[in-house]
User: What shape does this take?
Amino acid sequence: MGGAERRLIEELYERHAGAVFRYALRRSDRETAEEVTAQVFLVAWRRRGALPEDPLPWLYGVARRALADERRGASRRLRLGMRLRSTAVAPDPTHALPDRGLAEALGRLSERDREVLLLRYWEELEPAQIAGVTGRSKTATAVRLHRARNRLRRELDAEGGEDLKGREGARSCAVKAES
Amino acid sequence: MRGESGVVTSTSAHEIEERLRASRPEPAASPPSLSWLRALIDRAESGATPSHPEPRHRWRGRRAVAPAIVAVMVLGGAASGALLIATGRPLPPASVLPANPETGLGQPLADSVAPVPIRAPDPEGGPAWGMRVLRTTRGLVCLQGGRIVNGQLGGLGTGYAFGADGRFHPFLPADAIATDACPAVGSRAPAFLPGPPVIVTANALPLAGENVAPGDQVHCDLPGQSDWGVRCPQSELREVAMGLLGPAVAAIEVSAPSGSFTVRPYGPDGAYLIVLPPPRDANASMSAGAWQSPFGYASNAPGGAVLEVVYGDGSHCQIPPSTPQLQCRARSSREVPLPSFAGLSADVQVSYVPRSSHPVWPLLAWARSSTPTTQKAFEPSGGQEGAGPALSVSFRAPVAAPNASTAYAVELHPKEVAGCATPAVIVSQPSQRTIAAGERVQMMVPLEDRCATSYSGRVFFAKSAGIGGESGGEGPLYEAIAAQFGGGAQANPMKFPTVGRFQLAVP
Assistant: This one.
């Protein structure tokens, strides 16, 4: 690799490795997060001639798939080792959250819904950037985000969140503007 | 809850957002140092072998005599033969199709369920590949590919799929019937689905369809599941092209690294199914990005096959096209035409229902904002199950809405009220059922607020000719409508024609 290309990848790493690593660490353990970060930037190195202009959503997308692959591997090792026909390790990054009500409600969402919410509120991506991570159109992503929020709200209501239920009767005309 | 101004406001959406933000773990750890990346790249550049995934169960069937010679066979009679493979559980669909065949996406027509009689041998041996051309009672056409065992279409328990049980797992027709992959073409019109060559796993799971439960943790690429495989070995990959080109196509000339050959499309749909060994380094390409094909998540790969489509009149096009001029396009008017604007006039009656048990929230609600493409949280009063205010909109349908890509919908523009965050636009759910011309239609549009305001609105006739995007199961119209109201580059250039307009003051 030439000096210019190496500098490009190194700059990419210096700028985004922290975000990618924290993304992975919020969804796995430290060892896995390091492994995923390595995979992400090696893929970036292989694709150095075709990196997108805004690389962060793309890096998150690669990290997301790398995490999925790690989970599958872990799940299979578990099945083989313990002779269990268990379901795979749930790809649920929220199980250890201190806000148990939220964690359980998030856990009942589909992986797609959960991921767009976490990309929005944990990684602070705009809907257009989330579209870059998930490979969907911007419009579909905006709609997915909107619906995921509504589904989360229903899940929180269904589990008897007293504060939310208390507000149900007083709900009125406000539409929360998305930041 | 009342704010300082005394105006009744809702903060639950805001609090949900704050709760999500507050829940974000803040790991104190730092990423590995830059020198660590340098070492990784140096090792990779020097040709050191990266760690490989664990060895997986591979299909051990007979190997094809000449892998480069791979073409479509059209079966005569029951020439498929029986294979001694144990059958496992079917792949369960993620969502159940509606019991009423005249609603939603409809039910598969019985005579479209059997696989079409074309087969493609697998380059590594084992069961041949086949495909279904499914049609539904609501006019959708969906494709489903897979391996054929004893006349059934399905996938193999190889790789991580189904615990690598080596069994055959039938695909159900419902696996393929989803908004993402099925254009609506009407009752029997030919569809135009020029599927490009894509990289899929040899177990055929990516070809099952979009309506597959994401919770199924199977390797490598389960459609509908965004967690697709990252490092599938070359031996578990195939390059597959599957699609419909219509009756005017005479031949498809396939050029691939493994050889060139000609395929004759099958039947009036011009169906084709081509299975090839993967191009070189296809697995490396898969680790670098996925593309959504009409048939699920799959990956294209540099150096893959090119299909030269030759029509009966001698003209030709390419899949994938090397230039925009070579893009394949539908050759005949197969789409349901939009009715003329003049023929769409109808009287619309509107009334305010203070407490309706409307079942769903609107399709869209856009807040007043300087960024019109940003979608805002919308809170239907009372939630999905509860009662709340609504507009009852009724009219006599001037034209039929005969399939899943045609519907009536209502657009509302509330008048802005000081201190009350009324949205700029509310769009109802589309009608989502088969409607005959002249039939009385009533639609309930939930209102988000209890502020006194007035609404101007219209009923419009919506139609989508394309493949739907990601949606919640409402049909291909969903994204077409969302795109029209989204603005910007995503906007649909088609303006849905107005059936009737109305105005109403809400106390």
